[in-house]
Amino acid sequence: MSLWEIGRKTVKGSIIIAIGNISTLAISAVGAIIVARLLGPENYGLYSTWFSLASLFYLLGDWGLNAASVKYIAAYLAENRKEKAGSSWLIISAWKLLFSLLTSLILFFSAECLSINIYKTERLVYPLKVGSLLVFGLVMIGYGFSIFQAHYEMAMISEVNVLQAVIRTITSPLLIVIGFGLMGAIYGQVFSYLLPLVVVAYFFRSIKRKTYENNLGETGALEIPPAMWLEETKKFFSYGFPLAVSNIAYSSFPQALFLMLSILSTFEQTGYFTAAFRITTISAMILYSLATSLFPSFVEISTREDRDEALNHFFSRVVNYSAIFIFPLGAGMTALAYPIIGFLYSPSFLPASQPLIFLGLAVMINGLGQVTNSLLAAIGETKKVAVINVSRLCMGVGMNFLLIPLLQASGASISVVFAAATAAFLGFHFVKKAIGFTLDKGKILRIFFSSLSMGLSVLVVDSMLENFVLSVIVCIPLGAILYLLFSLLFGGINKRDVEELKKIVGSREKYRKIFFPILNLLYDFSRDY
User: Fold this and answer.
1) Prediction pTM value
2) Tens digits of per-residue pLDDT, 241-293?
């Protein structure tokens, strides 16, 4: 398969997941805002602390097997070795089920100790016991997503995500209003992960029929020899364990922020930071959409004879296009932090606008560094990925001890910036050593200045508008138009980008006839003036 075909498949998968993620975000945002308003800053801080700790236990149920399932199943399918892919699926499934049950039981029996000894309160004992069910759902749905990813079934990921959001948005606020209070939000969250497991199981059956012709290769679940179980298990854990360490370090960082805020500051400050952090999830979902599609694509490219050259070209374009979309998003969040918080949350949450300013900067840095992990994992450099994420965690936690006592929620946000910069620097350093990649600094700077110019312009317009709703409605579309004009003017988007986008879009003439004449017209206008 040519690089353009792989690129088109990657873009298609990214768009499908992005549409699902944006839909999920829109639905979840409604529920999250309602929950925040109903609970208030302190109870919302407790709810965030509960979910953060449950999420940490979810990481213990992975052991890198999600990434291993994508790596090996996608590679076997690319080589048309369906029997090997099916056997890998069955072996990893058995381990994932075992780990999900173990981690759930560990959280259940340690709930009282964690609540009283760490948080110095009994208010989290029962919520953490209920959270053990959430851990089981998180582990199994996460594994389901990796199987969908390995088979390029990106639509299934989007559908499950949307279903979760709908369930959570309906049940959590409803249970709070009925009278369950904090536990109503928790019950809704747990239910939103358990019910979709039925849908995941149905999708598994669909993939099995379509890909493996009603069986998982000639070696069924009961026919895999013990020697194969041992050999494949050793291979999966050898590849996955560094990624397990990496995932724990990466995913535990935001959870550590919530934990340290609740200990070094107050639950109210935790609620402010959570409100700001939730807004940045739109950027996280875009990056997740891209990374989800990129990983199997990088795996497929890594099997080619011209691996380094092909990866170098493919990766360089991914970095440029990531910056084109992520930089303006981060700049917009920074410029519109105050009206966004005022629009989405109640006036009692306005202090959350200060941490959001710094988180917007972190979004731009993450946009550059995030895709490096996908490439390094795809070519087997899992220890390098672990080094990146452990360094990110150490930098962030170290800065938190200094900044949270001084600046509270804003200090936690500044630590995110330092952690993101550390990860981005190490990521590009390791990629350069692996495939000889060189970052196009001029291109990145032009995109950055385009985003900065847009952000400053929007900030000026926002200062003339006193209404939160009016600022958001006016400034967001205005910012998109200004960014496009500044990008074309400064060269952040050039003719080559337009031509490559045409190739990716391919035969979809209805999009080409509408979109590209407008883009070309704006490009010519920016060159003339």
Assistant:
1) 0.63
2) 777 777 777 777 776 777 777 778 777 777 788 778 877 766 666 666 666 66
* Angstrom distance (rounded) from CA 412 to CA 254: 9
Eight-class DSSP state of 249: H
Alpha helices in 336-381, H assignment, sequence order:
337-344, 353-378
Residues 6+ apart with CB under 8 A from 174: 184, 188
> Does 66 score more than 60 pLDDT?
yes
Amino acid at 76: Y
- Identify the CA nearest to 153 among candidates 314, 20, 298: 20
Helices (H), 223-306: 226-264, 267-279, 281-302
Q: How far apart are CA 282 and CA 333, in angstroms?
A: 10
The C-alpha atoms of residue 158 and residue 145 are separated, in whole angstroms, by: 9
Which sign does the torsion angle of CA 191, 192, 194, 196 carry? positive
DSSP 143-186: HHHHHHHHTT-HHHHHHHHHHHHHHHHHHHHHHIIIIITHHHHH
Cβ(256)–Cβ(397) below 8 Å: yes
Tell me the residue length of the chain. Answer: 529
182 CB burial (10 A radius; 0-12, 13-18, 19+):
buried
Q: Is pLDDT at 413 greater than 70 in this prediction?
A: yes
Angle of CA points 83, 89, 92, to nearest 5°: 140
The answer, yes or no, to whether residue 415 has pLDDT greater than 60, is yes
